[in-house]
Design goal:
single chain; 166 residues; alpha/beta; Rossmann fold; 5-stranded mixed β-sheet; 5 strands; globular
Length: 166
């Protein structure tokens, strides 16, 4: 895969652990929708080094994941991490794998631009495939925020391309 200024939306999480799987739920819902050209969606599961090829193959990656923090349930934040230490300290169960992968990408000089949407959850102990009511309630807004970011990134790419052609 070679970067083609394409955007990857990568949902991370454990689908079997309720709210911890919010990223996977987002990926599954986005795969059911009509996406703009140049946008791919992948269910990244619990992350790890098997996702390295996806990160290498895209110029921009939008990650969606759950986080344990002190914010109210369903709080959505957008972070622009550049280094492993820029990821929230209380990421979910796959935290170490993602941070290690980001470090590897930096060492290989293949780091894409990453935009990380985190959704505040209450617990990693929840079992089941359903999201709790507060997280389910946040899903429509999260989807809108993702589409807004995609549109903004594509507009910036078009404007940059127009400037280089002139």
């Amino acid at each position: 895969m070679t970067p083609e200024k394409r955007i990857l939306i990568l949902g991370i999480g454990n689908y079997l652990m309720g709210d911890e799987g919010v990223g996977v739920h987002v990926a599954n819902r986005l795969q059911q929708q009509r996406l703009p050209p140049g946008v791919d969606v992948v269910d990244g599961g619990t992350g790890g080094f098997h996702l390295l090829g996806y990160f290498e193959g895209y110029e921009t990656v939008i990650l969606v994941d759950a986080t344990l923090d002190d914010n109210p349930l369903g709080t959505i934040r957008l972070i622009r991490p550049r280094f492993a230490q820029d990821f929230p300290k209380a990421m979910s169960t796959h935290d170490i794998g993602l941070k290690d992968m980001v470090s590897a990408l930096q060492l290989l000089d293949k780091m894409p631009v990453i935009h990380l949407f985190v959704v505040s959850i209450e617990s990693l102990q929840q079992q089941g495939i359903d999201l709790t009511a507060p997280i389910e309630k946040a899903m429509p807004l999260l989807m809108v925020k993702i589409f807004d970011l995609v549109n903004k990134l594509q507009k910036e790419t078009k404007e940059t391309n127009m400037l280089t052609v002139v």
